[in-house]
Amino acid sequence: MAKRFPDSSADKPAERSANVGIADVARLAGVSPATVSRVLNGVPNVREEYRERVMAAVAEVDYRPNRLAQNLRRQKAEVIGVVVSDIENPHFSEAVRAIEDASFRAGYRVMLCNTDETAEKQRAYLQMLADERVLGAIVSPADREGAGIGELLDLGIPIVCFDRTIDDPRVDAVTGDNVEGVRRATEHLLWLGHERIAYLGGRRDVETGAERLEGYLRTMRDAGHVPFAMDGGFRADTASEVTVKLLRQPKRASALLVANNLMTLGALRAVRAAGLRVPEDIALVGVDDPPWASLVDPPLTTVAQPVREMAQTAMSLLLERIRGTRTEVRRVVMPLELRVRDSCGMSLKSDEGTAE
């Protein structure tokens, strides 16, 4: 029979005190402090009877473990860092949600940082994560050099790069096959009869920007067409300004391929401000498939990344490192999917085919 604190009574639950500790919980549950510790840390080899008694005692006194003290003893926090380049981008917010879900199920918590595509902020946040003694981090790098990442690796803190890689050969990574995905989108526009296909890309010093541009340029040149690429900086406002200039060209492009969803919004804004229609006046294809892509009029043709699968894979790779079950470097590349809807002019081609 479990013992009670001397001042507790059957009809009045024990009030939580700041001084209530693991020894008090053990006394109330009738077990050793070591057993309480094993239960609270999720150790599996504890008898169910003891587990139930410990949890009942924890609930009765509202005991809360001092995580800070535990972390200081372990020299590690039960926290995983997540560093993204732009939290406003639905691509990254969806990834963060998937990482947080997987982290919570594994018993860890997430510390989220946004670099705003700057190496300086990335370095500062990674230093903070090191100071917080995080177990590991998933990072979408703001630069190919990976500002600050090497320092964490030197400290033994595992890093998994998400969406982009860096030059450091020690780091794991999960990315999409950007070259192939954009190649397929460009080929589809060519198949629809477009020859003047413009490309609105992102930063060329970032892997995703460089690879998507490569897919477009290679496909246009292989088909014998002159490419026309512009830089929208992965930003909606910049993309809108660049698209305005594109639409004012004497010989306007008949199709526009846009390298991420934020820039697609900027491009759509510019097209509609010019009084033009998609796809009748200009066809549009975007990389990324946010929830609104199928809801706009016309529905948007996209090159979709398996965001949740990529994020879950990144989390699995990080957990392997944290738990010490893998030491070799892994870099996973996942295919992108072309999702054809009306904005590319597919329905217009179908109508022409029916008329013939």
UniProtKB/TrEMBL annotation:
Keywords: DNA-binding, Repressor, Transcription, Transcription regulation
This protein's record includes keyword DNA-binding: yes
Listed name of the protein: HTH-type transcriptional repressor PurR
Domain HTH lacI-type intervals: 20-74
GO molecular function, one term: DNA-binding transcription factor activity
SMART domains listed in its UniProt record: HTH_LACI
Taxonomic path: Bacteria, Bacillati, Actinomycetota, Thermoleophilia, Solirubrobacterales
Superkingdom field: Bacteria
CDD domains to which the protein is assigned, alphabetical: HTH_LacI, PBP1_LacI_sugar_binding-like
Record has Transcription regulation as a keyword: yes
Pfam families per UniProt: LacI, Peripla_BP_3
